[in-house]
Amino acid sequence: MNRSIKVRLAFIVVVLLFIPFVACKKEQEQTVQVAEVTHSVFYAPLYVALSEGFFKEEGLEVELKTTWGGDKTMTALLSGGADIALTGSESSIYVEAQDTKDSVMNFAQLTQTDGTFLVSREKVNQFSWDQLKGKDFLGQRKGGMPQMVGEYVLKKEGIDVKKDLRMIQNIDFANISGAFSSGTGDFVQLFEPTASLLEKEGKGYITASFGEASGKVPYTTFMAKKSYLEENKETAEAFTRAIYKAQKWVEAKQPEEIAKAIQSHFPDTDLDVLSTAIKRYKQQDSFATDPLLNEEEWNKLQEIMKKSGELPEFIPYKQLVDSSIAKKVTDHK
Q: Which Pfam family, any one of them, does this sequence belong to (predicted)?
């Protein structure tokens, strides 16, 4: 047998030995489809988990899609279009109130304050909440966390949302900032980086933070159908471990470094705008430092819903919160 034939045979043997290894690796990598309610710097730890390879480290291939609105996000989850949803915890309560046979369980918290800011059309040097009286307020979707927290803050500041201002709620979630830019409303409630972007363009001015005004609440959590968590326990644990790694990473890093890590997820947004938005969120402790949703926060969520007239019924903590995964991942007792 000549040398060239030996070399070719050796190469074939190596390839044949390598193929099962690659196939095994692909077989072990679990695909997880995640639907996010909006695309915002508010969810920075999720994008860090993607860009820094934390999901990959856990053997997961995460496919992320933005579904723009709590109702659409829950539809994707319930119909099987997504394995995991990232949205406001109130969505799971609405589903439970419909006597679902497969409860939607909150298993990992991502944000722990409201993530919206009050943006004014005109620059305000000394702001007070009563300046909203008699104005057009471009709010968020009725029944969603941004709107309910917004109303909670306004009521706390002595503003009657039905009498003291003109509330505009007939604009689709994804089009709110565009409507404001086009001239609708004197004030608007927006997430980052949209709020900072409008300010940079001179189309609005960040006047106050709903997150600072409302305090801690389980604003955005990862949730899945109870059946999914029971059938994919290891996957859910791996997913939560990756999120926890990202949360600790974000906690330890400066806004500029975080902005660089997630810039690929916001290709049309300048790095300085991302850094400014992240700095605001870090200053008000919006990013949860671990995935555990506690009972006190859960009860405060329902208090906010009740005051907004949107709580269909009180749901006990353990009925819709599976804390076992987060406790295992973080070694909480």
A: NMT1
DSSP three-state, residue 328: helix
Q: How many CA atoms lie within 13 A of 264 on its CB side?
A: 8
C-alpha–C-alpha distance, residues 188 and 199, integer Å:
12
Residue type, 66: T
User: Do the beta carbons of residue 33 and residue 84 sit within 8 Å?
Assistant: yes
* Residues in the chain, total: 333
Closest CA to 96 of 226, 230, 237, 218: 226
Query: Which token pair is 317?
Result: 């903590």
**14 band by pLDDT with thresholds 50, 70 and 90:** very low
Residue 89 is classified by DSSP as T
For the stretch 305-315, pLDDT in tens is 999 999 999 99
**Spatial distance between the Cα atoms of 115 and 284, rounded to a whole number of angstroms:** 10
Could you tell me the domains of the chain? 31-113+217-330 (3.40.190.10), 116-214 (3.40.190.10)
CA-to-CA distance for 79 and 86, rounded, in angstroms? 15
The 10 Å Cβ neighbour count of residue 300 is 17
CA-based nearest residue to 190, from 252, 280, 314, 105: 280
Q: What is the pLDDT of residue 15?
A: 35
Nearest-angstrom CA–CA distance, 224 and 83: 6
> What pLDDT, on a 0 to 100 scale, did the predictor assign at position 174?
84
d(CA 70, CA 166): 24
CA 149 to chain centroid, in Å, comes to 15
> DSSP letter at 168?
E
pTM of the predicted protein model = 0.86
